[in-house]
Design brief:
Largest sheet: 3 strands, parallel
Oligomer: single chain
Structural class: alpha/beta
Radius of gyration: 15 Å
Distance between the termini: 33 Å
Strand order of the largest sheet: 1-2-3
Shape: flat
Length: 113
């Protein structure tokens, strides 16, 4: 989460780099679901990114893994499995407006049922 931090001018290196490359979605995996993953999800969401947390590619050493995924899902992220992310990237992904569901089924931004 250190790259989301602001420098002396109030800028974030990671935010600037992602936006300069046209990135509008971040996909998170890794350790410490209840700390690093959740705080990065909130940081990305607050900067306007669509956030995906890969539930079977995250873990923590505490008993809070499932709770953290529930919090992320209900507030700032889509929580998906690795298989769902790979299938989406392989079969459904299209570019679209920020905040839209960027898939071939609903490229206008409607959520899947």
């Amino acid at each position: 989460d250190m790259f989301w931090n602001f420098d002396e001018n109030g800028d974030s290196y990671l935010d600037e780099k992602l936006k300069s490359e046209g990135v509008d979605t971040i996909v998170l995996s890794g350790l410490w679901t209840d700390e690093c993953i959740l705080s990065t999800a909130y940081a990305g969401n607050s900067r306007g990114y669509d956030v995906v947390v890969v539930n079977d590619a995250t873990a923590t050493a505490t008993a809070n893994h499932e709770i953290s995924l529930t919090v992320a899902s209900s507030t700032v992220a889509n929580v998906l499995s690795t298989d769902d992310v790979v299938a989406y990237m392989s079969n459904d992904f299209v570019t679209g407006e920020r905040g839209a569901v960027k898939g071939v089924r609903h490229p206008d931004g409607r959520k899947d049922d």
